[in-house]
Amino acid sequence: MENKILIIGGGPAGSSAGIFLKKNGFDVTIFEKCDEHRVKVCGEGLTPEACNMLEKIGVLEKIKEVSHEVSSITLFDLNAQPIFFNNKCYTLKRSVLDKILRDEFVNLGGSVLYKTPIKKINVFEGRVVLEDLKGQKYDGDVVILATGAENSLAKSLGFNSVQTYSMALMRGYIKNTIDCKSLDFYYHDSYFPNGGWVFPLPGGILNVGVGCDRDSYAIENVDKLMDKFLKLLRDKYGESLGELYSSEKWIINSGLNTSNIFSDRVLLCGENISSAYNFSGEGVAPSLKTGFYAASAIIDSNGDYSSVGFSSYKEKVEKGIGPTHKIYNTMYRMLTKKIGSKIVCWFLRHSKKAKKLVEGVINEEVPLKHGFISAIWYSRKL
Ligand SMILES: Cc1cc2nc3c(=O)[nH]c(=O)nc-3n(C[C@H](O)[C@H](O)[C@H](O)COP(=O)(O)OP(=O)(O)OC[C@H]3O[C@@H](n4cnc5c(N)ncnc54)[C@H](O)[C@@H]3O)c2cc1C
After folding, report:
1. Residues with CB under 6 A from ligand 1
2. What is the pLDDT along the chain (382 residues), one digit of tens a residue?
3. Is the Cβ–Cβ distance between 276 and 256 less than 8 Å?
4. How far is the centre of ligand 1, averaged over its atoms, from the C-alpha of 252 (Å)?
5. β-sheet bridge partners, residue 248
6. What's the CA gap between 140 and 123, in Å, rounded?
7. Nearest ligand 1 atom to alpha carbon 276
8. Which of these, 272, 270, 294, 275, lies nearest to 20 by C-alpha position?
9. How many CB atoms lie within 10 A of CB 239?
10. In terms of CB atoms within 10 Å, which end of the chain has fewer, N or C?
11. Mutational test site, ligand 1, from 29, 36, 40, 92, max ligand atoms within 8 Å of CB
12. What pTM was computed for the model?
């Protein structure tokens, strides 16, 4: 058997890797432990960065047809005062987004095995063998681990630098009776330095959620943060805000780890390499990108599936999403200190240049190759 690629996980990272590999003639199977309607706990917001990747994948038009277009992002500062950003984003339920991506993979000739949780990976001299919960075995040449924040399989292969988790989050839904039209992010004195969001979804509902560093609230306690956030929203909207339903908690691995992300016949991508951004918690775009980089590393290896053959992978990830991570890490460090948060918000409120720069970063128009230096260079032109 040749060029048989096995991908564990049918989220954005796994589907993206599968789609690019299929486009390059590989025989690819995705193993997904849930069924085809899997609900991923998420804010369900798609930034311009995610949309650019979805366009590259070839599904953006399909996604636009079923999603809700949002023309701005609003940041509410510590005093609940709004700062508006002109960035076009989209929202749609993750069960729909993830299915569109997997269907695209299937349309290209890939196969998805649903309800197939992989429990063990064996890496041999010339092949890999996966074993599912029922004991069924699957042979291949390479395995891509795209299991999201659940990274016990990566740990079982000796990838000890994978995170436990960095952020704890909770989201639920409320009927959109408050005419919310933008992606609203709330920082507030009452739960500083954590954040909350309200995003309008298709079908007249709101995705309402909170997120924090795990040192602030562990995943078991994150509902306490949600209570504080709902109080803030009720104080603002009063009776017109409906009840929260279908709330669920989940975790994020963020901040990017590139120290140990591949070995012979194995590549890790998506949240297995902490691809989500600190501060915003945005993870769809970087997961799609790391799936693409993993596929490119396999294509570039010309059949040398050893760690030497995959050596371009680390550079692709670091060059591709490393600079954006640096910007988000800096923003995170500043905004999680009261003085830093006040300075940043003051600039965003009073300097058109600062606001345009943030809009440019979100729209992927600002060259970030050299991090802040290239961003500042770009801002001279604004
Ligand atoms: C509350 C919350 C809000 C968020 N809001 C946003 C947002 O608004 N915008 C945004 O861009 N990002 C957001 N994120 C982050 C985003 O959801 C993730 O970063 C993104 O889904 C990661 O993609 P992935 O493909 O790496 O992993 P996942 O999407 O988690 O996909 C992993 C897949 O692997 C499967 N799997 C796991 N283990 C196995 C196994 N052993 N065998 C077979 N299959 C397996 C899972 O069932 C799953 O389908 C949010 C996250 C949370 C928790």
Report:
1. 8-14, 31-34, 38, 40-45, 50, 117-118, 146-148, 150, 153, 169, 171, 209, 250, 252, 270-271, 276, 281-285, 287
2. 458 999 999 999 999 999 999 999 999 999 999 999 999 999 999 999 999 999 999 999 999 999 999 999 999 999 889 999 999 999 999 999 999 999 999 999 999 999 999 999 999 999 999 999 999 999 999 999 999 999 999 999 999 877 778 999 999 999 999 999 999 999 888 888 899 999 999 999 999 999 999 888 899 999 999 999 999 999 999 999 999 999 999 999 999 999 999 999 999 999 999 999 998 899 999 999 999 999 999 999 999 999 999 999 999 999 999 999 998 888 888 888 999 999 999 999 999 998 998 999 899 988 776 666 767 777 777 7
3. no
4. 8
5. 171
6. 10
7. 19
8. 294
9. 7
10. N
11. 40
12. 0.96
Q: Supply the angle between the helices 352-362 and 338-350 in degrees, to the nearest 10.
A: 100
Task: Give the residue, out of 147, 254, 292, 325, with the most ligand 1 atoms within 8 A of its beta carbon, to mutate for a pocket test.
Answer: 147
The alpha carbon of 334 and the centre of ligand 1 are apart by a number of angstroms equal to: 27
CA distance 264 to 284: 27
Residues in the chain: 382
Per-residue tokens: 130: 């996966």
CA distance 189 to 79: 7
Strands 27-31 and 111-113: what pairing?
Answer: parallel
Tokens describing residue 333: 């460090």
The CA distance from 54 to 131, in Å, is: 31
CA gap 255, 281 in Å, rounded: 9
How far is 84 from 355, CA to CA, in rounded Å? 9
CA distance 237 to 129: 55
**CA-proximal residue: ligand 1, atom 2 (nearest):** 42
Structural Rg of the chain based on CA atoms: 21
Atom number of ligand 1 nearest to Cα 197: 8
How far is residue 81's CA from residue 332's CA, in Å, rounded to a whole number? Answer: 20
Q: Which residue has the tokens 């919310």?
A: 180
Q: Is the dihedral of CA 110, 115, 116, 118 positive or negative?
A: positive
**How many angstroms is it from 241 CA to the middle of ligand 1?**
28
What's CA 207's distance to the chain center, in Å? 16
Closest residue by CA, ligand 1 atom 50: 42
